[in-house]
Amino acid sequence: MRIGILGSGLMGGKLGTLFARAGHEVVFSYARSQAKLKRLARIAGDKALAGTPAEAAQGADALLLAVHWSRFPDVLQQAGDVSGKIIVSCSLPMNAGNTELVVAHTSSGLEELAKIVLKARVVAAFNSVPSEVLFSVYEGRRRAKRPSLVYCGDDKRAKVIAATLIRDVGFDPVDAGPARIARYIEPFALLVAQLAYEGEGGPELAYRFDRRGK
Ligand SMILES: NC(=O)c1ccc[n+]([C@@H]2O[C@H](COP(=O)([O-])OP(=O)(O)OC[C@H]3O[C@@H](n4cnc5c(N)ncnc54)[C@H](OP(=O)(O)O)[C@@H]3O)[C@@H](O)[C@H]2O)c1
To answer: What is the pLDDT of residues 50-101, one digit of tens each?
Structure first.
């Protein structure tokens, strides 16, 4: 696939590199310096390029949205028309200090995104994983017991693409249901962050769901 990265920071930079290593074409966009985007593309290999958000969106089979909540309007305006595009969002609706969710319980960042990009096909994924864990999971991706990664959304085809990308990065995709389930995934992501950074788990923490009983 051709994947446009909107936001090439900790999450976008790492996921974009892993998508390229898994064989996808990747366009890194949206950082404060063009040099950084070029460096990411060089490290990610032959399948990766640096570009503008509009170039990342053009011809993309999927877009990864990986910017702070406050940057949504700017990056989407720069991306241009995203009608019909699959947007996989790993972003969380956080305040400026990243201490609290600014949307919760009755809506979610994903549902609010869907209202901004009415004609796009949105999925939430990767937002419950600390960026530090991504490379080690990718390197261990042939293990039988992979860590789980939940995703949700209302568009079936978009969810198939998201599940493929989740698998390519070395996780076991767990379909959590429709877009409204993001209301529960987003606070869950903060629990994972709490355990990773403030508990004893360390940032390498990754979780696995096992079915119990029937
Ligand atoms: N980090 C994690 O472990 C993690 C895990 C799960 C979910 N998330 C979520 O993923 C989203 C992104 O997080 P992140 O940690 O990847 O953030 P980040 O490292 O700050 O990345 C954000 C990207 O946006 C770019 N950017 C910010 N302001 C800009 C501007 N004015 N013009 C152009 N580019 C600009 C940054 O540029 P520079 O590269 O130049 O700084 C960076 O590339 C957030 O919603 C976060 O809640 C993060």
So the answer is: 999 999 999 999 999 999 999 999 999 999 999 999 999 999 999 999 999 9
Residue whose Cα lies nearest atom 45 of ligand 1: it is 91
- Asked whether the beta carbons of 161 and 88 are under 8 A apart, the reply is yes
26 CA distance to ligand 1 centroid (A)? 17
Q: What's at 162, amino acid-wise?
A: A
3-state secondary structure (DSSP) of residue 6: strand
* Ligand 1 in reach of 96 Cβ (< 6 A): no
> What is this structure's pTM?
0.97
SS3 209: coil
Q: What are the contacts of 180-183 at 24+ separation with CB within 8 A?
A: 180/108, 180/111, 181/152, 182/108, 182/109, 182/110, 182/111, 182/124, 182/152, 183/104, 183/105, 183/106, 183/107, 183/108, 183/111
Ligand 1: does its nearest atom lie under 6 Å from the Cβ of 4?
no
